[in-house]
Amino acid sequence: MRIIDLRSDTVTLPTEEMRKAMANAEVGDDVYGEDPTVKKLEEKAAQIMGKEAGLFVPTGTMGNQIAVMTHTKRGDEIILEEKAHIFYYEVGGIAALSGVQARTLKGYYGALDPSEVEKSIRTGDIHEPRTSLICLENTHNKAGGTVIPLEIMKQIKEIGEKYNIPIHLDGARIFNAATALRVDVKEIAKYADSVMFCLSKGLCAPVGSMLVGTKEWIERARRNRKRLGGGMRQAGILAAAGLIALEKMPDRLKEDHENARFLAEGLKEIPGIKVDMASIQTNIVFMDYEETGLTPDSFIAGLKKRGIKVNPGYPLVRMVTHLGINRDDINYTLQAIKEIVQGG
Ligand SMILES: *Cc1c(COP(=O)(O)O)cnc(C)c1O
């Protein structure tokens, strides 16, 4: 059966070129600092993001958790958007691993209001925790892959500087944000002290994410990576794919964005399906099927029967475009959803 996997851009498979590079990678023990391919990837990631140093981490979640751990002390408070990945989808890691508490603020399409951020910073009163970090997410996953405007990032960075509070950017999909904004990723990364980004999503590497920041900060992050068990040995095998991901893949993300828009425009014409077109900015599409009257079971089962995999939910279903999805797959998906809605 034809399978159309729209669950996430994490389902992308490594390209032939990545597999060859992996097979031929020069490697060593990276915990001893002896893996040349990992070093090359870390340097390249830092250079692309306009930072001093980089750190290769197994997952985006570990990268974010290391960032929080490296920026904070136990009992601190960190400011996050209320649907931020770090708050919502990292298994309570900030509490369990770093012992910090979250101050969540409601965003507008994922973007924090700078004046709300400023008002939420603690004053130093003896009763209060210390605010030690502001986290941003660009693109914002749960808001629909929305892009945080650079002007907002700039204002929040200025607030951070005013109060001496660092900014961590969860830039899992920062290349999607840069593509949508038509800017170099540096123009986004410059408003953050540390950035995490994923090689394993739209960039198609099999495994891995990066942290970038100052040299001093990355050295401390490296110790925290080891503490969390993320010190990998001949990781150059993975870094080799990451290098190709960085060199070859960002330029094609615009195709994913065009496909997501095409999908969203088709969906909103189907009776009972609603799409908030303002949220369609990159490669993520949320559709609301409440008005079709279909139960989650029948809707998701109908999709499954036709080989279409989505991130299930009610009333929202998430679909993500990526290298494994072409225009024809989207036409097939739209036709299938029309049939399901019509009771076919
Ligand atoms: C996917 C994602 C992560 C985490 O990445 P994993 O590699 O799956 O752990 C972090 N933040 C955002 C916004 C993401 O979409």
Automatic annotation (TrEMBL):
Name this protein carries in UniProt: L-allo-threonine aldolase
Top-level EC class as recorded in UniProt: lyase
Enzyme Commission number: 4.1.2.49
Gene3D superfamilies: Aspartate Aminotransferase, domain 1 (3.90.1150.10), Type I PLP-dependent aspartate aminotransferase-like (Major domain) (3.40.640.10)
Aromatic amino acid beta-eliminating lyase/threonine aldolase domain: residues covered: 5-288
NCBIfam families: GntG_guanitoxin, PRK10534.1
Swiss-Prot/TrEMBL keywords: Lyase, Pyridoxal phosphate
Modified residues (N6-(pyridoxal phosphate)lysine): K201
GO biological process: glycine biosynthetic process; L-threonine catabolic process
MF GO annotations: L-allo-threonine aldolase activity
CDD domains reported for this sequence: TA_like
UniProt key word ATP-binding: no
Gene: ltaA
